Amino acid sequence: MKTVNVIEGVTPDSVTEELLNSGQPIVLKNFGKHWPLPQIEADNVSKAMEFLSGFYSGMPVSAGLGNPEIEGRIFYDESVQGFNFKAGNVHISKVFERILQHCEDPKPPTIYIGSTNVEKLLPGFRDSHFVDLSKQNAVANIWMGNQSRIAAHYDFPANLACCLYGKRRFTLFPPEQLQNLYVGPLELSPGGQEISMVDFSNPDFEAFPKFKDALDEALVADLSPGDALILPGMWWHHVEAFQSFNVLMTHWWRPEPLIGGRPIDALQLAIMSIRDLPKAQREAWKNQFDYYVFENEHHSHDHIPEKAQGMLHRPITESAAINIRKSVINKLRN
Predict the structure, then answer these.
(1) Which of 50, 246, 295, 303 could be joined to 241 by an S-S link, Cβ 3.0–4.6 Å?
(2) Four-CA torsion 131, 174, 208, 279, nearest 10 degrees
(3) pLDDT over threshold 90, residue 2
C-alpha cells in the first residue's frame, strides 16, 4: 500500500476550488490545527466532551452500541440480514458517559454516532471550525465515538473530512477496484451504502483472493487532530478510529447540478431490467448506454433542433429531468 499525497500549508482560508476538485485524494496536514477542538489534549477526553456539550441542541442523537466482541467493527450479523450492533436515539450525554466508563478498557464496547448534521446537533460549533464551502453547497456532518472500524464503502459526493479529535486511518481504493472488494448486498447495509465484506484487520484471502489485487492499489491516509483529507466522490474508503474518543467532521458536495437524481437508482433499475437479458441483448444495450451516457461527449445531437432535443440536451434541463421522473414512475406502476 502507498500513502496519500500530503500537502502542508493549506488552511481553511486558503483551500482552493481547484484543489478540492482535483479528483485525487490529498491529505492537508495541520489544516485546522488552530481550531479549538484539535488543540485539546489527547488524554483529556472529558474536556473535549465538555466543549462539545456546550453547543448541544438537546436533540436526540442516533447512536450504535456493539458488544466488545466485535472489536469496533460495524458490520452485519452472521445471517447478513441484520447488524452486529443495536441502535437507538439518545441524549448525547448518555453516549459520552458510556464512552468515559470504558476509556481504559482494553476491549470496550463499540459506541458510535454516525453521520449527523452539525448545525442541528451542535449549533454554533462550526463558527470556530469553519471552512467556507458555500460555493459547493456542502453539507457538514459530524461523527463521534470510541475505537471503530467502518467497512470499505463509497460516497457519491466529494468530501473534505476533517479530523478534530483522536486519530483516524483511511484506506482508499479507486472506483475501479469494485470488482476486488467483494461488496455485500445492495438492499441492506450498516450505514446505508453497500460495503466490502472483507475484514481488513484479518483478511481471509482464501474466501476473498482478489482482495490482494485491491491492496496493491490501496492508498493510506493517517490523520491526526487538525488534519484533513480531500476524498473524491466514488472512491472506496475503509475508516478506522483508534483512540478512546474520536471526532470527525465531513463536508459533502457534488460538483455537478443536483437535478439529475441518484445514479444508484439507475443502477438498480438496470439490474432489474437489463442484467438477466441474453448476452447479445445486453451488448446491444451496452452500446446504447455508451452512446447516450458514458461516451456521450463524443457524439453530437445537432441533427435534432435544440428545442426538440429534450433529455438529449447537454446539460440536462430541470424540466427534462422532471419529465423523466414522471415517465419512469408511471412506467413502473404499470
Answers:
(1) 246
(2) 130
(3) yes
What is the rounded average pLDDT of the residues 54-69? Answer: 97
Q: Which three cell numbers stand for residue 187?
A: 438492499
Please state whether the predicted TM-score (pTM) of the whole model is above 0.90: yes
pLDDT at position 261, please?
82
For 188: left if phi > 0, alpha if psi spans -120 to 50, otherwise beta; the answer is beta
- Residue carrying C-alpha cell 483508534: 242
Write out the H or E segment, with its range, that includes residue 74: strand 73-74
Angle at 172 between CA 170 and CA 177, to 5 degrees: 155
Q: Which residues pair with 61 in a beta bridge?
A: 90
For the chain, residues classed under CATH 2.60.120.10 are 2-253
Confirm if 195 and 184 have CB atoms less than 8 A apart: yes
DSSP string spanning 131-154? ---GGGT-EEEEEEESSEEEEEE-
Q: DSSP secondary-structure letter at 292?
A: I
Question: Grid coordinates 441502535 are at which residue?
Answer: 87
Cα–Cα distance list, 40 to 129, 148, 293 (Å): 14, 21, 49
**Residue 257 pLDDT > 90, yes or no?**
no
Q: What's the rounded Cα separation, in Å, for the pair 12 and 127?
A: 12
pLDDT given for residue 260 in this prediction: 78
Rounded CA gap, 82 and 188, in Å?
Answer: 8
Angle, to 10 degrees, between the axis of helix 45-53 and the axis of helix 92-101? Answer: 180
What is the CATH class of 2-253?
A: mainly beta
User: Sign of torsion, CA 148 82 186 179?
Assistant: positive
In the DSSP assignment, the letter for residue 51 is H
